[in-house]
## 1
Amino acid sequence: MSIHFADRIKRAPVSFLSELFSVSNNPSIISFAGGLPSSALIDTAGIAQATRQVMEDDARSALQYTTTDGYLPLREFIADRYRTRLGLHATAEEIQIVNGSQQCLDQFAKIFLNAGDHVGMERPGYLGAIEAFSLYEPVIDTVPLEDDGLDLGAFEQFVKKPNAKFFYGIPNS
């Protein structure tokens, strides 16, 4: 039997993130490339408490397959937080739970990109976004960063393109 993969898989670049994460497994290396926080900063006690609470309150539902939008009580909590903290009208139906940025970027690209669409990205850009978008075969137009942010002239040229689909940048402050 011969397996025939989709043509786009043949054109997909090698995973940048796999290479970065393989290096980050070495405890003698501090990598700033992959967006990995210090494991010392992970709130393991808070995560354990939240897990215990969910297991006590609604374990069967939490462990069962559900809608692809994610666990409803969590989506309700997030919507309420948007309303109370930010004053934004939000409902649980408008919240989508994802497992990290890669899943979110892939879903976004899947929904919006066609082969040949133009995506603007800051340069240097997030390798994970390049990887997620590349599978959908866009043209990636880069906009250089200056000391105070995007090169606005290059950004203006990008947004004026008739085939510009969206711009992806990292909001650093």
Note: The chain has two domains: 41-94, 99-173.
## 2
Amino acid sequence: MVNRIIDFSSKNSFFVFGARGTGKTHLLKQRYARENNWYIDLLDPELARKYLLTPSALLQELAAKKQVPEWIIIDEVQKAPALLDIVHKQIEATKQKFILSGSSARKLKRGAANLLAGRAFVYNLFPLTAKEMGVEFDLEEALNWGTLPKLLEYDNPTDKKEYLRAYASTYLREEILQEQIIRNLEPFHRFLSVAAQMGSKVINYSKIAQDTGASVPTVQSYFQILEDTLLGFTLPQFHESIRKRQRANPKFYFFDSGVQRALAEELNTTLTPRTFHYGHVFEQFVINEIYRLQSYYRKDYRLSYILTGAGVEIDLIIERPGLKRAAVEIKSATTVAQGDLKSLLTLGKDIPDCELFCLSNDPVPKVIENVHCLPWQTGLIELGL
């Protein structure tokens, strides 16, 4: 059994958001399936229809219970968003504790749903981290197939490919088409493929618009959809000035390498160590690990990247409250040498109050000049994760 790192409040109502397949339902049942709790699964179409038509039925059923539940868990609450008005009133009137899960807040906001005005905390759930998988973690498997929990049930590559292909098509069908986030699905379908192929590179909105037959504002809205539905996140370019950060185009990282490879139609291409593509996917994996762990541990780290006009790049800048900044270069190499650190050594000295790190597959920790070269697992710990 995988023990998830995420730590929910025991005193306060909260939302749990996460893309499909990240394990929200399983986790909530695992932690809260007790007699003194009430679990409402709105993936049941009859239940969803009942509460959609008559939200007050929740109060009537609650009043009929012999014992007031410690927690009321409403899974996939976006299926009946009017329930949130009832939830709000109950929190105010009785201090009842609620857990509200869904694939994103976007649908709730789009429907002008009540997001409880800060009365409920917000947590995001992601695919499994290496730390959560423990001895079951295998780097090659993670890079090739990603770490969605369902993949642990499959033993062979064929089943994993089919699951990831189905996941990609299910997302298109259910999350986008049925929820009517966009009206014309075909350009978005093309956009997903192009965006997946360009993942972790600086976003060229004009080029993607040209390749997908959509306008630049439409492409920008598509990336916003991916962020809002927790299928990825943007990494801004580092600058001391917040305004200048906002002007520069960000990078985009899909939330899972397996899903990205499915969208890019790369599942039949095996990743080979010591190739450029392998290093590219490894970088995405490590940055995703950092993004997930800092979220779970509530670190409030600010992540960005550096890319100069001359093409000199640092993969990740981490601004850590109360600690020095960290400039991080990510290498898939099994042996790190000084030549791998040119960008860090060139640009690092110009970043004030900053420590320099190289995270890699090299098992031997070392310091080259002032760069801490560490195995990536050890490096995450040194970064406070």
Note: Residues 205 and 216 are 6 Å apart (CA to CA).
## 3
Amino acid sequence: MAAESTQPAIPEPGTAPRRGGKGRRRKAPSTGRKALRATAWTAAGVVVLGGAGAGFLYFKLNGNLHSVDINQALGTDRPTKIDNGSENILVLGSDTRSGKNKKLGGGTDDGSARSDTAMIVHVYKGHQRASVVSIPRDTLVDRPQCTDTKGTAHPAASGVMFNEAYSTGGAACAVKTVESITGIRMDHYLEVDFEGFQRLIDDLGGVEVTTTKSIKDPQSHLDLKAGTHTLDGEQALGLVRTRHGVGDGSDLGRIQLQQAFVKALIDQVKHVGVLSNPKKLYDLADTATKAVTTDSDLGSVNSLIDFAGGLKGISSSHMKMVTMPVQYDPANPNRVLLEKTKAQLVWNALKNDRPIPKSATKGTATGEAKGVVTG
């Protein structure tokens, strides 16, 4: 469960916001504390708007949210929740081809979707540190039998790409597959699509990164010279999707770019003065709540605010990012295979709320793109 938040919730429509005791003035939070509140999807920032408009905002932003009831879809055949104060969140970036995402994702408008990016975020007890484990989408896995949120059952399959779990049965099957691989229960689920990601970056005013090498990838429409750049939404999307312009051209190299970009994004959000600009704050919250799909436990603005309150103390310097231990498939260099012994070291560390040991990733495939992008 998320740590209890000290942030005020948005009042339900029809109720008056609570005020402090007469004659008392709450101490103004420091600049650093204000900035940290803007992390975790920025939806938490809407609380500063408060007052008479809170009822309208509650309805407006709540209406933006889309959630899926993963608990109901998966039932009781899941790993046991480890009640040690930690949390595990599966974060997916989906490359749906429907609607406005067709142009961004390529291909036809057939409504299909895959998990373009997958990260397990482990938040340690005390919610001051986190480990992030990226799952290569090209990993060949044994997908378990699963039931999607519409009640349709999908049979198990062996030796299929990891990202096919999402395209087969959506969020529920993606969660089921991750839990099968790790033996760890996912407490929450967050998904962002192409369009939402691009709009969030634009609303933030871009993200500054430094490239140590030039990156040119016609397939992701990215052309960056070596140096410092403030990436807009389209460029940022191109960066986190490129695989042919860096390293060995594999998905592993792209993951290293994604990890570097996430850290740069966290640092950028901390320094954006949105909390002194209510309109910008609202625009960010509006975009964020439209951009994400969550599990049903996070399916309201207040729930997201509570969730964000439990993450606000985590800075990029307190976030360790690794890639799930894999090796290239000898039969197909475009696919990777799970290094089960080393991966178990990762899963054991997360289960026991311990740091991931360096030995877990030593000697595994990397994609050779480390250090190409920095914050």
Note: The longest strand covers residues 115-123.
